[in-house]
Amino acid sequence: MSIRVAIDELQSAGFPMGGEPLVALDLADTLMTVTEPATDLIGNPGASATWWSLQSGSLPPGPVPEAAAVRRLRAAIRDVLDSHLEGRAARPTSVDDINAAAAAAPVSPRLVVTADGPRGEKRWHTEHGGNAALAAIAAEAIGLLADSERLQLLRRCANPTCSMLFLAENKRRKWCTSNICGNRARVARHYERTHTDRDGGV
After folding, report:
1. Are 23 and 65 in contact (CB under 8 A)?
2. Of 144, 156, 137, 30, residue with least CA distance to 82
3. Nearest to 81 by CA among 68, 65, 70, 94
4. Contact call for residues 187 and 194 (beta carbons, < 8 A)
5. Residue 126: partners with Cβ closer than 8 Å, 6 or more residues away
6. Collapsing DSSP states into helix, strand and coil, what is residue 40?
7. Total structural domains in the chain?
8. How does pLDDT run across 56-113, given as a tens digit for each residue?
9. CATH code at 143?
10. What's the whole-model pTM score?
11. Across the strands, what pairs with 120?
12. Are 144 and 24 in contact (CB under 8 A)?
């Protein structure tokens, strides 16, 4: 059974966002596109190893993918998600890269016999060099993009200085995280209200 990493675990490790229902979204959010240049939250080996370790409960077992392959898939996923939100066509290369990652390690059902009886499990085929973690993430992205009802829940954080994406399973959700962008918005509203009252009283 998949065990999702919690947002507080990710934040404790230095990642501001995560804990989404899909690792594909968490991966897209490791690139902060509102900074110039963009900030890669898993750009160094230590941060990358930590992030993959935290996500391991949601991914098939296997080696951590190569950094270049991760960046390529992340850029592709980010492009197709952003293109949906912006009402534009995704780059054909992005679609190709997602499909290639998914196909590089196909999955098949497998019956195993345990002390408790037979059960089904997934077998990821990495015999030809594919990475199971990247294939699983690509499959998640495909599943989201092919599910028009769930895709309607995709949002970008309402903070104009934030690029994080999330699924608004709670329809009232506007912020990537309540304790960062949500809190900033509350502080800004409080500041505006108190200064407006003060200025109006002069």
Report:
1. no
2. 156
3. 94
4. no
5. 62, 105, 132
6. strand
7. 1
8. 999 999 999 999 999 999 999 999 999 999 999 999 999 999 999 999 999 999 999 9
9. 1.10.3300
10. 0.87
11. 111
12. yes
Nearest to 131 by CA among 35, 29, 27, 12: 27
Check if the beta carbon of residue 46 is closer than 8 Å to that of residue 92. no
Report the relative pairing of strands 107-114 and 117-124 from DSSP bridges: antiparallel
pLDDT digits (tens, 9 = 90+) for 147-157: 999 999 999 99
Residue at 183 is within a domain: yes
Residue with tokens 């998600």: 81
Overall size of the chain counted in residues: 202
> Which tokens belong to 90?
């995704």
Is residue 1 one of the residues assigned to a domain?
Answer: no
Helices H, strands E: what count in the chain? 8, 6
Place of tokens 């009252």: 197
